[in-house]
Design brief:
mainly alpha; two-stranded antiparallel sheet; 2 strands; 67% helix; rod-shaped
Amino acid sequence: MRSAGGAGKDSGAGEDIGTGVPSNALGTWVFSIAGALVAIPVGIKRKSLAPLVFFGTTGTMLDIIMGISACEREHAERQMKLMEAQNVSTDASLVDTGSES
């Protein structure tokens, strides 16, 4: 995947660098569909749209929560990798400076 400007590398974590949206965020539709599939027969039996509203919104909220959790987890992993890389480069520069003295 490329960034919005077209000049970016794929981070390998399944993320579009330009937008910061993980590619698996688009896969968070399972609970919405499950909620609708449960709500349709219940709504027909009760002759009401209330189950569709309840199960549909609950499924959508679960999908949103799962997507946000995945984003936060990937962001935390990426930050840890960046911090480790900075620590390694800082340690390497300190070793080089210490050997010159």
